[in-house]
Amino acid sequence: MWDYTDKVMELFYNPKNQGLLEDNQEPGIAVVFGEVGSIACGDALRLHLKIDVDNDKILDARFQTFGCTSAIASSSALTELIKGLTLNAALQVTNKDIAEYLGGLPEAKMHCSVMGQEALEAAIFKYRGIPIAVHEEDEGALICSCFGISESKIRRVIQENNLATAEQVTSYVKAGGGCGSCLANIDDLIAAVTKESALNIATDIATAQEQLQRPLTTVQKIALIQKVLDEEVRPLLIADGGDVELYDVEGDRVQVALQGACGSCSSSTATLKVAIEAKLQERISQKLLVEAV
Ligand code: FES
């Protein structure tokens, strides 16, 4: 017996949005369906969408499925997740979102959530007139001939779900669950995707560091100086009956106007150097020099 969550059981016994959507030829409304799987393989899902053509929005979604408890619950969850979304927003829904909506699925049943995501794409591609054949040609080499699973499909499921073993890949997309001759290739793909992910992270960090080292633009510098003055300098001066206003910034020269008690104070030079210049140098750049106007 599988260890299903209460949400899975609830949607299995009382599925929401089960059935089909009739195309009543309403003006401004399109009805389309996408399907994946096959009854011969044990799982099949047909997802129906009712679309507001002007707004590209999903007004209603229904499903018909042939499969187990988790296939029914996943399909029902998918319809609840996508109703009211634009098509582009719906395309961002992943199998992980479906599983999370259900409070989780046993790993061996994750392929049901993947099937939902694929049916959604199939329906939207069909509505948009993207030929499925072209889409499939873009999917790269066939890795698992037993289940007809392509390299790109396996790569995607590894990336989106952080999969680390061929056994997990089998749970998510069935690849490797037949004769097993593709398992070594799946292991190679996992290694390649993991390496690519590590490289991408390293590139992101290097880019962020490079951006941090890039000189500030004048606009960025002025905004930062104003922020430090407002948040860290002026409250102290105001507490002593004074104040300061940013007058201008030329290169690294910061011109300020001392006000109130600060303007007539005999120690205004110390105020400039200690309270203002030192703080700006500490927070923004050691090169900044402050002078009064
Ligand atoms: S080729 Fe993948 S299980 Fe047979």
TrEMBL record:
Coiled coil residues, start to end: none
Essential cofactor(s): [2Fe-2S] cluster
InterPro entries, A to Z: BFD-like_2Fe2S-bd_dom, BFD-like_2Fe2S-bd_dom_sf, FSCA_dom_sf, N_fixation_NifU, NIF_FeS_clus_asmbl_NifU, NIF_FeS_clus_asmbl_NifU_C, NIF_FeS_clus_asmbl_NifU_N
Residue ranges occupied by any NIF system FeS cluster assembly NifU N-terminal domain in the UniProt entry: 4-130
Ranges of residues in domain NIF system FeS cluster assembly NifU C-terminal: 225-290
BFD-like [2Fe-2S]-binding domain sequence ranges: 142-191
UniProtKB keywords: 2Fe-2S, Iron, Iron-sulfur, Metal-binding, Nitrogen fixation
Pfam family membership, one: NifU
Superkingdom classification of source: Bacteria
PANTHER family: IRON-SULFUR CLUSTER ASSEMBLY ENZYME NIFU HOMOLOG
Purpose: May be involved in the formation or repair of [Fe-S] clusters present in iron-sulfur proteins.
Family: Belongs to the NifU family.
NCBIfam families: NifU_proper
Protein name stated in the entry: Nitrogen fixation protein NifU
Organism, scientific name: Gloeocapsopsis crepidinum LEGE 06123
Lineage of source species: Bacteria, Bacillati, Cyanobacteriota, Cyanophyceae, Oscillatoriophycideae
